[in-house]
Amino acid sequence: MRILLVDDERDFVSAMAERLALRGLDADWALSGEQALEMAGTCGYDLAVLDMKMPRLGGLEIKRRLTAKCPKMKFIFLSGHGSEEDFRAGAAEAESYLIKPVGIEDLVARIKKSIE
Question: Can you give the pTM of this predicted structure?
Answer without folding.
Answer: 0.90
